[in-house]
Amino acid sequence: MWIRMIMVAGAMALGLSVGWYVMAQNGAALPDFAPGQILTAEDLNTIVDQVANNQAALSGAASGDPLLVDCDAGDSLAQAVQGVSPGRTIQVSGACSGRVMVTTDRLTLDGQGTAVLDGGGANGSVGPDFEGVLTVNGARDVTITGFTFQNSEVDGLVASRGAVLTISNITVQNSTRSGLVLSSNVVADLSNITTQDNGGAGIFVTDGARVIFRRMITSTGNNQASLGPGIGIVEGATARLHGAMLQANNNLGDGVGITTNGVLSGAGSNSITSNNNGRHGILLSNGWMEIEPGATINVVGHATGSGIFAIGNGTVVNVPSEAGEGAAYLLENNAVGLNLDVQGAAFFIGGLTVRNNDFGILASGANTLTVVSIPPNPSNLSGNTSDVDLSFGTRSTFDGVPIDTITCDATVLSRGSTICP
């Protein structure tokens, strides 16, 4: 009997900690007793059994059915996530608030296309690591789908410390800092992601994270509080396009930033559009970009910046397949189409169209500039105020590319079918 009463005390304490949420999930509340009422052994046993059943429902031991969280009815997503066992699905509806931390493996959070997690603009202090209105901290095989994350005082959705996850069909907006942050060796598969109107980057991949972009990946109107990239791939991170349409338009800073040993690559039918951003369309600073044949890359409308700007071993490469097919780059209506600053490099074996820019290609102290035209995938420069301007020791090769105007200083080393005067 005493053991049973001790269990009751512990169970009642646990019942209070999960509270109304557990009862709502299991559909069975604990019995009510009047003040001063003497409880029988049967009453106590009922309480213990009910708390145990509620715990089992919450942890998934009693049922494989999804846990249902209705935030409009007062349910707490944060409590549900903390109490759930690995392998469970939580279906969420309504407008939830506050921060949520995921540390459980094999967890699925399904917002069903309508659920909202709102930071309310007041999420408390910022710690040493990235923090979001939703943070996945080291958990593996996590799936997040069908949510809008918004109004975070810090970042929107964050995954860190080796987390492995799949994210699809989400919108991240109006965060004080970045929208979607993937850091610290995270592995993530992303599809149908929209990030908009965040203070920092829309999507920020950093610190050795590895991601795959699929389907529609959109970053627009970001960098409200900074001049960072709409999509950033930095600090040894790698991103690969796999059947993706990557769009980085109308951001206040750069459209796409690949820096500090970041890598962007892709194979198959992919497209990149980076238009009308506040600085450059694509920034490469000690970063590498190589998109394989079959892709289209359009970088248009940077009136005060460059379509592609490469500096400090930043490199863009376009190499054709054995059949001569390659990616197709269009750099149009920019202040500079292709801009190579000190130690920047570009290799285009076909597939480069640079037209209607103030400067078509501008290179100063570039490492290597190679632009070749091949019959299956030609390169051309046309309609630019000045097609090519080379200086400060730039090494260049132009082969088979018609150039109307080319200017070089005495330090330039050039070869090919078009060379410096």
Question: What are the defining features of this structure?
Answer:
421 residues; mainly beta; Pectate Lyase C-like; 21-stranded parallel β-sheet; 13-stranded parallel β-sheet; 3 helices; elongated
As a percent range, the share of helical residues equals: 10-25%
Helical segment count: 3
Total domain modules? 2
**Large-scale geometry:** elongated
Mean pLDDT: 87
Gyration radius from CA atoms, angstroms = 28 Å
Q: Outline the biggest β-sheet.
A: 21 strands, parallel
Structural class by secondary-structure content: mainly beta
Q: How far apart are the first and last residues' alpha carbons, in Å?
A: 102 Å
Q: Flag low-confidence runs.
A: 1-28, 122-126
- How many β strands by DSSP? 34
Q: What name is given to the CATH topology of the largest domain?
A: Pectate Lyase C-like
Beta-strand fraction estimate? 35-45%
CATH architecture of the largest domain: 3 Solenoid
CATH class of the largest domain: Mainly Beta
CATH superfamily of the largest domain: Single-stranded right-handed beta-helix, Pectin lyase-like
